[in-house]
Design brief:
- The chain has about 400 residues and is α+β, with helices and mostly antiparallel strands.
- It folds into three domains: about 1-100, no CATH class; about 110-205, no CATH class; about 210-385, Dna Topoisomerase Vi A Subunit, Chain: A, domain 2, CATH 3.40.1360.
- Helices cover about 45% and strands about 20% of the residues.
- The strands form five sheets. The protein has a six-stranded mixed sheet with strand order 11-8-14-13-15-16.
- Strand 13, helix 10 and strand 14 (about 275-280) form a beta-alpha-beta unit.
- Helix 1 crosses helix 3 (about 60-70) and helix 5 packs parallel to helix 7.
- It is elongated and about 105 Å long.
- The N and C termini lie far apart (about 85 Å).
Length: about 400
């Protein structure tokens, strides 16, 4: 025990003679106070600050806890002699990190290591998915609580496969995919994502999904008649494709185009008898239901044009299932290597190669899609259809 006199005050320091080997048995109330104390990484704290953290209703609990921790070798207690007896003045933790771990908390060294791992994973994410780079850069350079950074990193990690798989849906759909609940992304997080990224072009819509069409299709709803041939193209809410809507004149063929720019270009020069539909990547349930309804009301063969890349093959197969289920023929068009191998191309990434490996095991590929798959593997290149379609 060390005793001193400073500024006319008698002070002493008490410390257990046994080293810290573990926490003593604690009541639930004592453990709750200890966890509040250990939120700070400070090696030394004033007793008054610790009392304030414990709360006015837990003063007796705090006193008892202090003596238990002192006896367990977790701290050195600085006391002042006031009003005729020794009173706690300051607490010095012998090893704050060991005490935090013993209490089931993550200590600063582990938190720092996890933080560095998180930053490294974000940097890698930006490298693997350049479209996410603006949001990643904001995370890396903007001071923010670690909990906020962690939450934003989790959203970006969920957004990466959403974009790679070219999924499409409402914000609620993304929230469900990212966190398991449609309302799990907060308004603040949406505002941050909206500031950093073009969510609409990444397939995350704020409003009701629409089916975009052009060409040979006439629809009637009560007294309203819509002939698509009278306009270049139009978008209708997907959920409207059900009774009382009816098809009054159907096409001899449907043509689905994935790239929006290509869809609009072909809509302006569409051959007679064809109904053109924009295929928004991996469409949501509303879009699929709307197209299935069209096929039931006005059956016709299908043509499907997607980007000649691994995801494009998957998207074509998913859309083609609508024709399979309706007992109608369909085929891919404008996707053969001869259409695009002289155009601007990009190298396959790791995700692309994983998809191609899966497609090699798929017995349902048509000869045309098998040819495209094998060409992608052999060349190591892919393309986007707006370059030629």
């Amino acid at each position: 025990m060390l005793m001193t006199v400073a500024n006319g005050k008698h002070r002493r320091t008490r410390q257990a003679t046994t080293p810290f080997i573990g926490l003593p048995p604690l009541s639930p109330a004592q453990r709750g106070v200890l966890l509040r104390w250990l939120k700070s990484d400070a090696q030394e704290r004033s007793w008054q600050v610790l009392l304030d953290a414990a709360g006015s209703e837990a003063l007796d609990t705090a006193d008892a806890l202090l003596q238990l921790l002192l006896g367990a070798g977790t701290l050195a207690l600085k006391e002042e002699f006031r009003h005729g007896h020794w009173q706690p003045w300051r607490v010095v933790w012998c090893d704050i990190h060991a005490l935090q771990r013993a209490a089931g908390l993550t200590a600063a060294p582990e938190r720092d290591a996890a933080h560095q791992d998180l930053l490294a994973s974000l940097a890698q994410l930006a490298q693997d998915h350049p479209a996410l780079a603006p949001a990643v850069q904001h995370c890396l350079v903007t001071p923010q609580p670690r909990s906020t950074l962690q939450a934003r990193a989790e959203l970006l990690q969920a957004l990466a496969p959403w974009c790679s798989e070219q999924r499409v849906g409402l914000r609620q759909d993304f929230a469900l995919a990212a966190r398991g609940h449609t309302k799990a992304v907060t308004a603040g997080e949406w505002a941050w994502l909206e500031t950093c990224l073009p969510l609409e072009t990444m397939g995350i819509a704020r409003f009701e999904p629409q089916l975009w069409l052009a060409g040979a299709l006439s629809l009637r709803r009560e007294d309203f008649l819509l002939d698509l041939r009278s306009m270049v193209f139009c978008g209708l809410p997907s959920k409207q494709f059900a009774a009382p809507l009816a098809v009054t004149a159907g096409p001899r063929a449907y043509w689905l185009i994935e790239n929006r720019a290509s869809f609009e270009r072909q809509a302006a020069q569409l051959e007679a008898g064809v109904c053109l539909i924009w295929l928004p990547g991996r469409p949501g349930a509303d879009w699929l239901t709307a197209v299935a309804w069209l096929l039931a009301q006005a059956p016709a063969p299908g043509r499907i044009s997607c980007d000649p890349d691994p995801a494009g093959i998957q998207i074509a197969l998913s859309a083609g299932q609508l024709w399979d289920q309706a007992g109608l023929p369909w085929q891919c068009t404008h996707m053969a290597p001869a259409n695009w191998e002289d155009s601007q191309t990009q190298a396959l990434n790791d995700y692309d190669r994983r998809v191609l490996a899966e497609l090699q095991l798929d017995p349902g590929l048509s000869p045309a899609l098998c040819e495209l798959r094998d060409h992608l593997l052999a060349s190591g290149r892919k393309a986007e259809q707006e370059g030629w379609l």
